[in-house]
Write a structure and sequence with these properties.
alpha+beta, 3-stranded antiparallel beta sheet, about 350 residues, about 20% strand
């Protein structure tokens, strides 16, 4: 097992993504970034940490397999050191295990679990680490969290085995990576502009969200059902627009109102439906994940050259789903033209 990775895998460059809480990231970065600098230098792996102001951060480790294992060993031992230090100030007697969360494309999780759970059982038994694959995908992505816990040595062995599985079974189709959302700052769409809520004010949000929303609006104008301004208990926000979709993204206490759901129907030529569904439904699942809308495709009817697609969700979800469907059709048509 080890020889397979070290001999056959030395020239293989891998990228492993970890999901960490702010406190864990702080421990990895260290004072003035000294810890992460040392980890980069000693392991030879590239270690990138996603932008701050999120309760969760993504730590990306890239490099040859041996460099990745060194980086993982350093992270696991650092976390164990943190646990030991925190226990010296507490009354707890049993030492909790070190826990790491990997982010793995959902299309590779089947190989990791194995037929009837055989592979994951084998990894647990041979390494002594606990391994759990989340049943659901992480929000707005096609990735799942894989939680590993145990002693640092068990975790390192476990990561080695997971890397072998990932090298032997590459991801199928496109992967939408998980991007953690900033803490409790809902986003509202009004008048084609995205706003974040800060206190009792709506601050214009210069983000891709606005661009995507505007594209969706240009693509498919629609009339929202009823009043779509979310109700904010106890506070009057300087926002008075129900002309366009307003979508409340991210859950925060007291901000649980969202626009009413509506339904929109599209007809698509039979010969183009395949590019929207994708292999084994991968594309349509991506569109569902990214838009947050429910999408149903009617069965082909005899003598008809078209299929009916029903999209259900908030007006913003629907327009985003339509935009993504149109983008798929456009790429298919231009792709055909290029042949």
């Amino acid at each position: 097992m080890d020889s397979k990775v070290s001999e056959g895998g030395l020239n293989v460059t891998l990228t492993i993504r970890l999901l960490m809480h702010g406190k864990e990231v702080g421990s990895i970065i260290g004072k003035k970034g000294e810890t992460v600098k040392k980890m980069r230098e000693e392991s030879g792996a590239r270690i990138n940490i996603s932008e701050g102001n999120c309760p969760e951060r993504i730590v990306t480790i890239t490099g040859p397999t041996d460099a990745i294992f060194k980086a993982f060993a350093m992270i696991a031992y650092k976390f164990e050191e943190d646990i030991t230090n925190s226990m010296s100030n507490s009354t707890a007697t049993s030492k909790p295990p070190v826990t790491l969360r990997l982010v793995v494309p959902a299309s590779q999780c089947g190989s990791l679990i194995g037929k009837g759970g055989s592979k994951i059982k084998e990894i647990r038994e041979s390494t002594g680490a606990q391994v759990q694959v989340a049943g659901d995908m992480l929000p707005n992505s096609t990735e799942r969290a894989v939680t590993i816990s145990g002693t640092p040595d068990a975790i390192i062995q476990c990561v080695k085995q997971i890397c072998v599985v990932m090298l032997e079974s590459p991801p199928k189709g496109a992967t939408i990576p998980y991007r953690p959302k900033p803490a409790s700052t809902p986003v509202i769409f009004a008048g084609g502009q995205a706003y974040t809520i800060q206190g009792q004010y709506a601050i214009p949000h210069p983000d891709q969200l606005t661009k995507l929303h505007q594209l969706a609006m240009q693509q498919t104008p629609f009339t929202p059902l009823g009043q779509t301004t979310p109700a904010f208990p106890g506070e009057k926000l300087p926002l008075h627009s129900s002309e366009e979709a307003q979508n409340l993204m991210g859950q925060s206490s007291g901000l649980d109102a969202s626009p009413p759901a509506s339904t929109h129907e599209l007809t698509i030529p039979n010969d183009l439906i395949g590019c929207i569904i994708g292999r084994q439904g991968t594309k349509i699942n991506e569109i569902r994940q990214m838009s947050g809308a429910q999408i149903k495709i009617a069965n082909a009817t005899e003598g008809s050259s078209e299929r009916q697609i029903t999209i259900t969700g908030t007006p913003a979800n629907i327009s985003l789903a339509q935009y993504l469907i149109n983008a798929r059709l456009t790429s298919e048509v231009t792709g055909m033209g290029a042949l």
